[in-house]
Amino acid sequence: MAFLSEAEIESGLLDHLRAIGGYRIEREEAIGPDGHRPERESHDEAFLKERGL
Predict the structure, then answer these.
(1) Would you put residue 49 in left (φ > 0), alpha (ψ -120 to 50) or beta?
(2) Are 33 and 42 in contact (CB under 8 A)?
(3) What is residue 13's predicted lDDT score, i.e. its pLDDT?
């Protein structure tokens, strides 16, 4: 049985979302609570309300 790391799963999912279109990938460093364009107050917030997600 092959083991996939969390990073490999995340990378594959992001590649898939880019390929099907309609998604914009943002880095945590930009939109995280301490980022230069924060979109949430803490990491406990799973949904980005301003985006309607």
Answers:
(1) alpha
(2) yes
(3) 93
Predicted confidence (pLDDT) per residue in 10-52, tens digit: 999 999 999 998 888 888 899 999 999 999 899 898 888 777 6
Count the domains in the chain.
1
24 in a domain, yes or no? yes
Q: Which domain holds residue 21?
A: 6-51
Q: Residue 20: what pLDDT?
A: 93
Q: Which amino acid would we find at residue 12?
A: G
The verdict on residue 29 lying in a domain is yes
> Does 1 map to a domain?
no
